[in-house]
Amino acid sequence: MIAELTSFMEEAQLNRKIPLLLLIPVLTLSLGACERRAEKESQSEAMSEMKQNSAEAEQPPAQAEELVWVFEGRGNRQCEGGGLSLEESRAKLADSGVEVEESRCATRTDRMYPAVCGAPTGDILMHLIPMDALDAALELGFDPADQIQYQQRGSCPDNDS
Q1: Which residue of 19, 26, 90, 100 shows the fewest CB atoms closer than 10 Å?
Q2: Could you report the per-residue pLDDT of 53-112, keeping only the tens digit for each?
Q3: Residues contacting residue 18 through CB under 8 Å, at least 6 positions apart
Q4: Angstrom distance (rounded) from CA 127 to CA 90
Q5: Which is nearest to 150 in space by CA: 125, 115, 114?
Q6: pLDDT of residue 13
Q7: 62 with 130: CB under 8 angstroms?
Q8: Closest by CA position to 84, among listed 151, 159, 144
Q9: Is residue 25 very low, low, confident or very high in pLDDT (cuts 50, 70, 90)?
Q10: Structural domains of the chain, ranges and CATH numbers in brackets
């Protein structure tokens, strides 16, 4: 485009039909448009690169469809306490090679438990594991949590209570 303008200017100078002063604004506007287009292209490339980098950085270790909640009864008794702690339950899975993403305490709400000393409680220990480790967890005595109703607890009870 610049070459065309240069040849046009040379021709105009030779012919003296178009004054040189009228060509200066035309040349300035054309160069400004070229610079803006190049600037937009570089911004567009930078934005697409940033989107690609952020998408790579935001990928979680596993997708939600690839994880499953499993549980086991805590094994504590009313008025006596005892049973497993959340850490002991998690270690049972980890020792068998099952990667645990998250652990929580909960209480089963789909069963009734009589208020009698020595009777079991509805306390359960829940763990989020990869779907491909479900068979290993089932062999260890865990069950899928989607088969029961439960309420998550804010904190896990002590083994003494």
Answers
A1: 19
A2: 544 444 444 555 699 999 999 999 999 988 999 999 999 999 999 999 999 999 999 999
A3: 12
A4: 7
A5: 125
A6: 61
A7: yes
A8: 159
A9: low
A10: 2-57 (no CATH), 64-152 (3.30.70)
